[in-house]
Amino acid sequence: MKVNKNFLLNLVNFLLICLTLYLFIMLFLTIKELEYKIKHLEKESKKYSLIYDDYVKMRKKYYKVLIDKYNLSEHVALKIINVVYKNSLKFDLNSDLIFKVIAVESSFDTVATSPADAKGLMQVLPSTANFLAGLLGIKDYNLYSIEDNILLGTFYLKLLIEYNEGDTMKALREYYAGRFWYLEETKKYALKVLNNSFFE
To answer: CA-to-CA distance for 47 and 50, rounded, in angstroms?
Structure first.
């Protein structure tokens, strides 16, 4: 059986056109994907640049105060700043509020213990800590650890603010006294935190 040469040439040309079209489409899609990734990286770069700038401002704001006013070592001061900032991002809370709570609760004493057995920087009760750790899936923690205490304390504060639909005043009163938040002294505590000017 003889094959028409023209038919073969046309077939080869058709296949070449199809292959060229396929390669062109793949190249186009690759370029679009690269453009998307570049835009995404630029967006992420701006985001992290803003986060870094925010961190630098916060560090500058608190570093000297923690050392001069609260007599903390440089190492401890930097550790507290870093952990507060990390958890402020994690739980979407204002870092100033976290610092103010720590200032009022423990004056930045990492081993502070209240008569009610609240412990550490944010004065978290062991029973409350067990509940919070369970929600976060944490098995081992130490309330005198800077990392663990600020993590649990910030998480607790965030839960209370959400529970009270953004009412920070009420959340602080509950942070201080739990179900006895309605007592007058809790209002004084909340105002002390909110009006705290230790860092200004």
So the answer is: 5
